Amino acid sequence: MKIESVVLDQWYPVTTENMPVAGKIYHTRLLGQPIEYGLDEKDGFYAILLATRERLPVLMQHYTYWVSLGNPPDMFAISEFQDAERRVLAAASVCVKASGLRVVENFLDIAHFPFVHEGTLGEMPYTAVKPYRVEIENNEIYARDCEFYQPVAAFSHEGSMNIEYIYRVCSPFSALLYKTCPLQPAKKDVICLFVQPCDEDRSIVHMPMACLDDSASLEELRLFRQSILGEDMAILNNQIPRKLPLATDFEISTGADATSVAYRRWLSEKGVCYGAFQNP
Question: Helix or strand or coil: residue 260?
């Protein structure tokens, strides 16, 4: 199928820095195309399009290995990954039976916290979502002034607190979350959602992060994040349709969905079709 350039000409994650073993060949799919990749001791990271044996553009940034099937732009910046004070790690990459656009939208949804992540990121009866701002800056989406009551805001923090969030959508399949660090409330942890669209309705989620928590082990931080992602999986793997509807009248939205509405409008304005639901 022909894929629109706004999707084809992007960087996509295929693995995080901690995963590849030098000398081993890995196989995956990207935008419906089989590719292989690996870490060569001499030449470093590489990726090959299996249909043509063509070498693909590659990049290692933000604790992630990226591949493109087209002519990608400069990678978006995340300065926190260069902060020596932070600990950089990644949760295990997970396959999801849903469009990558669906995965990003779920990540942007703050209203589901008390229902899907009860006891950690939210709990009853604290279900109200306070008004927040959504803005477009430098062709990216920012949602600011997001705040939510959380009983367990971080692995190393005991007790509940109100947590401030900033969401940032950098590209159609990449989003970030800046979240108050309970151990250093003046600063924010950064959690990334980098989605690899294997096919239109199947994705792999890669989640590197740059955290300020220096008391928990890396494994404890990783498992805490994976437990949150595991709770989201039940939702993502059962959404109908698997692709994301972009029409504003297809699903009912509320004020709490302001980021989702902005994301769908932003995708429509860019002409994104891959992974979007087309109503016959």
Answer: helix
Q: Which residues pair with 64 in a beta bridge?
A: 16, 61
Q: 31, 197 in Cβ contact below 8 A?
A: yes
CB 12 within 8 A of CB 196: yes
Cβ(209)–Cβ(190) under 8 Å?
Answer: yes
CB 191 within 8 A of CB 78: no
Name the one residue in this structure whose structure tokens are 């955290």. Answer: 211
The larger pLDDT score, comparing residue 180 to residue 36, is at 36
- The pTM assigned to this predicted structure is 0.91
Tracing tokens 């290692």 back to the chain, one arrives at: 60
Compute the distance between CA of residue 22 and CA of residue 45 in angstroms, rounded to an integer.
9
The whole-angstrom distance between residue 215's C-alpha and the CA centroid of its chain comes to 25
8 A C-beta contact, residue 69 and residue 56: yes
Place of tokens 């933000």: 62
Res 119: pLDDT: 63
Residue 176's beta-bridge partner residues?
A: 168, 192
